[in-house]
Amino acid sequence: MSSKFYFITCVLLILSACKEQKEAVVYSSAEILQLAAPQVQVDSLLFNHKAEVVAVFDMDGVEIRYTSDGAEVTDTSMLYDKKLAVTEPSEFTFRAFHTDYLPSKPISTRLLKVKKDVSTASVTLTPQPDKKYSGGGAKVLVDLQKGTTQFRAGDHWLGLQGKQIKIALEFEQETTISKLIISSLNDHGSWIFLPKGIRVFTNDKQELGMAAIPIPTEMEPKTIALLDVPIVPGTYKNIEIHIDLLETIPQWHQGSGTSPFFFIDEILVE
Fold this sequence. Notes:
This protein has 1 helix and 15 strands; from the N terminus they run αβββββββββββββββ.
């Protein structure tokens, strides 16, 4: 009788311990889960008068917080509760929060207001884009029409490979310039990478400005990157842009050692 009692007692203790352990695992897993980033929708990254920004996270209890001044997004930042109307160049950073989960990683979007219309400029591109990604030709680079991250949709994006791209711009008339913005795609999952550097020259090879872009050390989210290139302020009729590409995909990527693509859809002048 005593042995049977002892056996039943042991079984009950084991079951109780298993139940407690299971509950502890469920509780701690909820603590370490991290929210995904909100979905950010913009009706136009490049606008003449105004644009609208919408942030979405379809889950009960989630708050979306944001900043518009470059500051880190915390649980005390501005609460997103309606679409944002934008009339000036802006950059927003969003983040999702929930009391039961870790906050999401931040996601940023930058909107540009057209300051100079150079759509009449003559554009020469060397080398030519890959035939699969030739878009509407070199003139799409100044047509003031932005592509989306779905690079196969429409004819806005030009996709190229190699060591360097040269883009010559001849403006219809002399144009005052202090900065260029190169719009490019960052999509590591599709083997599309940003360049490693951009330099700007006059037509007589005088360097006007440059920008260095860090080589990524891990997989990054798919985004449209607006690369600022400050140049010597002045009035120019011709400029030449040299874009130095990554020659091979970094070692951490599954395509390591092969040639990445570079995608560009617009050159903006300020």
